[in-house]
Write a structure and sequence with these properties.
mainly alpha, Serine Threonine Protein Phosphatase 5, Tetratricopeptide repeat, single chain
Length: about 160
């Protein structure tokens, strides 16, 4: 019986030693911060690629990532929401793009949003005029303005 006790104690010691060695060889969980290898412009380009394939959710994720460092991404996000018929978010991101970048395309796209929704046409005209003022050579911006003026003329 004394032998069994000694043998049990020995086995327990060996088992504990093996477990200790095994556990000490394992790494504890670590927090790893990955560096994003893509620039904001590359995220936008990737988003455009997804958008062209009709993968709007994937494009939106790329634009969201880009928006952390590049504010023009808000314009692209507005375009995605417009395509998804989420006009509330489209308006939100076009306004954000206007505020942060003063890009004429953001003015034009918000004006076009109002035109297609047949709402806020007076504001749409102001936005379209601003887009043309910022980029007077743009045929597309002039077309947006002309269509809004035409629609407002019929609405009066």
């Amino acid at each position: 019986m004394e032998k069994n006790r000694i043998l049990d104690a020995f086995c327990n010691t060996i088992c504990l030693t093996i477990i200790t060695i095994l556990l000490s060889s394992c790494n504890l969980p670590r927090i790893i911060v990955f560096h994003d290898p893509l620039t904001p412009e590359e995220h936008i380009n990737l988003g455009v690629s997804y958008e062209n394939k009709g993968e709007l959710d994937a494009a939106l994720k790329e634009y969201e990532t880009a928006s952390k460092k590049s504010q023009i991404a808000y314009l692209y996000m507005g375009n995605i929401y417009f395509q998804k018929n989420d006009f509330v978010n489209a308006e939100k991101y076009y306004r954000k793009a206007i505020k942060k970048t003063d890009d004429p395309l953001a003015y034009n796209n918000l004006a076009w949003l109002y035109y297609t929704m047949d709402t806020k046409l007076q504001e749409a005209e102001k936005l379209a005029r601003k887009a043309v003022e910022l980029s007077p050579d743009s045929v597309d911006f002039k077309d947006t303005l002309d269509r809004i003026i035409e629609k407002r003329g019929y609405a009066r």
